[in-house]
Amino acid sequence: MRRPVLLVVAHGSRDPRHAATVHDLVRRVRSLRPGLRVETGFLDFNIPSVRGALESLDAEGVREVVALPLLLTRAFHAKSDIPAVLAEAPPRLRIRQAEVLGPSPLLLAALERRLYEAGLTPADKSSTGVVLASAGSSDPEAIAVIAEIAREWRHTGWCAVRPAFASASLPRTEQAVAELRAAGCARVAVAPYVLAPGFLPDRIARGAAGADVLADVLGPAPEVARVLLERYEQARAPRLTAVGA
C-alpha cells in the first residue's frame, strides 16, 4: 500500500536562512527514508504555502497526507493555525496532523551535538551551566514543557540548566547566563532550542554575549530528522483521527 505523503509544515520567515534550513532538514529526512515522499509547506512568507502544497498534491491524485508541524512545542500554531489551514484542504485528501517534535530524547541529543560542535566536550559537562534558550510563547503549556526539558537535561550531568525565552516570557537569555555565573558554574553555554535562524534566534545570540559558548540552532541535525520520521510513523497509527473525518 502506498504510504501517505509527509508534508512538513513550517512557519516561514522573511529571513531567507529560515527556508534554507527547513529545506536542508527535509533533504536529510528524504536521505533517511528514500522511498518516502516528503514535501514542504509554509504558513507565511515563503512558498509553497500549506494550502498551495495540498492543492498540488490533490491535483496529482494523492489521497493521504501526514501534516507534520515543524514546531518544538504545542503552542498556538499547532493548536489553531495549522488545524484551520488543514480543514480547508481539498475534500478528497485524507489528512492526519502529526504531533509536534518535542519533547524527545533525540532533541536533547541534538542539543548536545550542537554544543560539542561549538567546542565543548563531554568532560566539560560537570563544570558547565547551560541556558536552554527557546523562542518563547504566551501558551502556559509550551512554557511548562521548556521548563521540564531543562530539569530533565540537568540530570544528564551538566552543572546546571536554566530555561530562557527570546519573547513573551522571562527570563531572557542574558538573565539566565548571569544566573548561572552567580550559581558558580565555571563555564556557561547557550543552547538555542530553535529549529532555524531568524529574528528570535538572533535575539538569543545577542543575549549570549556574556556566555563562553553559543551553539548553533538545531537545523538539519540527524536527530531532528529522525524525530520527524518518528512523528510521521506515529501519525499513521489507526488510533489517530484524520482531520475533517
Explain briefly what this protein structure is.
This protein is of the alpha/beta class. It contains 8 helices and 8 strands; from the N terminus they run βαβαβαβαβαβαβαβα.
| End-to-end CA span | 21 Å
CATH class of the largest domain: Alpha Beta
Spans of at least 5 consecutive residues whose pLDDT stays below 50 are none
Structural class, from helix and strand content? alpha/beta
The appropriate CATH architecture of the largest domain is: 3-Layer(aba) Sandwich
The number of distinct β-strands equals 8
Count of individual helical segments? 8
Report the order of strands and helices.
EHEHEHEHEHEHEHEH
- Tell me the radius of gyration: 19 Å
Oligomer: single chain
Number of domains: 2
CATH topology value of the largest domain = Rossmann fold
Largest sheet: 4 strands, parallel
Helical residues, percent: 40-55%
Strand content: 15-25%
Q: Compute the average pLDDT.
A: 95
Strands of the biggest beta sheet: in what spatial order?
2-1-3-4
Gross morphology is elongated
Structure report:
- The chain is an alpha/beta fold and 245 residues long.
- The chain folds into 2 domains: 5-102 and 222-235, Rossmann fold, CATH 3.40.50; 119-214, 3-Layer(aba) Sandwich (Rossmann fold).
- Helix content is 41%, strand content 17%.
- It contains 8 helices and 8 strands; from the N terminus they run βαβαβαβαβαβαβαβα.
- The chain has helices spanning 16-32, 50-59, 76-87, 105-117, 140-154, 173-182, 199-207, 222-235, and strands spanning 5-10, 38-42, 64-69, 94-97, 128-134, 160-165, 187-192, 213-214.
- The strands form 2 sheets. A 4-stranded parallel sheet has the order 2-1-3-4, with helices on both faces. Strands 6-5-7-8 form a 4-stranded parallel sheet, sandwiched between helices.
- Helix 3 links the parallel strand 3 and strand 4 (94-97).
- Helix 1 (16-32) packs across helix 8 (222-235).
- It is elongated and about 60 Å long.
- The chain starts with a strand and ends in a 10-residue tail after the last helix.
